[in-house]
Amino acid sequence: MSMLRNSLFAISVAATSVSAQTDITVALQLEPPHLDPTSAAAGAIDSVLYSNVFEGLTRFAADGSIIPGLARSWEISDDGLLYTFSLHSDVTFHDGTTMDAEDVKFTFDRILADDSTNAQKALYTGITEVSVLDPLTVRMTLSEPNGNMLFNLAWGDAVIVAPESVDNIKQQPIGTGAFKFDRWVQSDRIELRRNDDYWGTPASLEAATFKFISDPTAAFASVMAGDVDYFSAFPAPENLPQFEADPRFQVLVGSTEGETILSTNNKQPPFDNLLVRQALAHAIDRNAIIDGAMFGYGTPIGTHFAPHHPAYVDLTAQSAYDPEKARSLLAKAGLPDGFDTTLYLPPPSYARRGGEIVAAQLAQVGIRAQIINVEWAQWLESVFRGKDFGLTIVSHTEPLDIGIYANPDYYFQYDNPAYQSLMTTLNGTTDPEARTQLMQQAQTMIADDYVNGFLFQLAQLSVARTELTGLWANAPTQATDLTAVRWSDK
User: Which has the closest alpha carbon to 322: 365, 291, 372, 375?
Assistant: First the structure.
């Protein structure tokens, strides 16, 4: 009888220990270059900090909808030029200072400053003034109506920061979120702990550790060994069937906003020639890239737009795989023997694995691409900022970001005044049907100009312990939102 009691006690203790777990170890493939989402293009920053540490006036929900963040409500004037936000009361930053309308004004004045390094500054240049009406009320004045404004304010680039802490924000991020930054052991991990003074619904988890595991083989081993509880954007899709067959794990297959493209330097010869860009597009076999690099996970795209969006136009046939046509177009462009170029590949599997396949496909038509593997910091410096490249492969995970093609200084340097005018019209349009038509025109225009090689929409593939709930299956923005994650009792 005592043995039975002892066994029951052991079972009870084991069950209690499972249900009592209050920390989580999350693995990501990419480590952030620094920790300020308002001054870099690296989505890896948002992957750790979005919603967890930093919050904006609005935010993305798991289904991609825009919901209130630090703004509890807002009013928009009839002419669409005035946005008046009412802020939540009793919100404090993690250093104990109060978050109020002055911080909102500071944040956007900083974004719009001449020396701003905000990667998406163009989204906010229509804001001509931010006025503090009282500590909990702030008004934005726009130069023209912008039907995307609430959407734009949800981006990680527009999270609210404080003047008291901004000088050290890249190493010591201080936000208002449900988790506080604890420490960063570079090349290894970032540790967060629960913010017990959080103004909203507190997190269930007491602590979260983000580990950075870039190698797909090591990623598989770490999950199987139980070293990590959740691997977001798992980099080895070939291993997913093993996880699906193992009752310890759940496999989450969702969609992202990540248009994976063969980005092309439109100002660098010979890519400044439409015929060459057209040849490039016809040299690419999208399905072979999806199968070879992503093991079938991914949706072919023919323009820079997410296939799951209602306004999407399927233009893949316009740039169908046709190597004979590609060779003919190169000859017509005066390059019958092809040419040499560079292909910069950042660390993600879609880029490194996909790049090998793309280079082989391009070689078949005479485009000899020298593969240059780079880390993210190098990519940001030489490709994104320096524009010193011929080709590169990257997934643009920002939501509804077709507007980047209206910026001639953006790294692929597409300069089309007609497109820029179209985007201006879109930004000033609020009618849903009219916006859909304009977005479809925009998709067609960049497809007609063969601005980039449009490859596939990145799938969101994650692996987690079965007991975890509240995880995002889809990625409406690049985030690993832990604010609703908890361990179940089963």
Answer: 365
Cβ–Cβ under 8 Å, residues 98 and 108: no
Integer Cα distance of 119 and 244 in angstroms:
38
What token pair was written down for 22? 């209050």
Q: How far apart are CA 208 and CA 49, in angstroms?
A: 11
Burial of 2 (0-12, 13-18, 19+ CB in 10 A): exposed
Q: How far apart are CA 76 and CA 140, in angstroms?
A: 10
* Tokens read off for 157: 């680039």
Dihedral (CA of 108, 114, 119, 125) sign: positive
Contact 134, 103 (CB under 8 A): no
The model's confidence at residue 164, banded by pLDDT at 50, 70 and 90, is very high
> Per-residue pLDDT averaged across 246-257, rounded?
95
Exposed e or buried b for every residue in 446-463, given b needs 16+ CB within 10 A? bbebbbbbbbbbbbbbbb
Nearest to 178 by CA among 158, 151, 205, 159: 205
Q: How confident is the model over 125-155, as pLDDT tens digits?
A: 999 999 999 999 999 999 988 888 999 999 9
3-class secondary structure, 373: strand
CB-based contact 464:324 (threshold 8 Å) = no
Output DSSP code: residue 92: B
Angle (CA) 147 41 484, round 5°: 75
What span, in angstroms and rounded, lies between the C-alpha atoms of 41 and 377?
Answer: 11
417 φ, ψ (degrees, to nearest 5): -55, -35
Q: Distance between the two ends of the chain, CA-based, in angstroms?
A: 27
Return the bridge partners of 339, or none.
367
C-alpha 488, offset from chain centre: 28
Q: What is the CA radius of gyration of the chain?
A: 24
Tokens for 279?
A: 């040849």
> Which residues on adjacent β-strands are paired with residue 392?
263, 344
pLDDT band at 5 (very low <50, low <70, confident <90, very high): very low
Contacts of 426 (CB under 8 A, 6+ apart): 147, 148, 403, 435, 438, 439, 442
Residue 181: which of 189, 156, 190, 479 has the closest Cα? 190
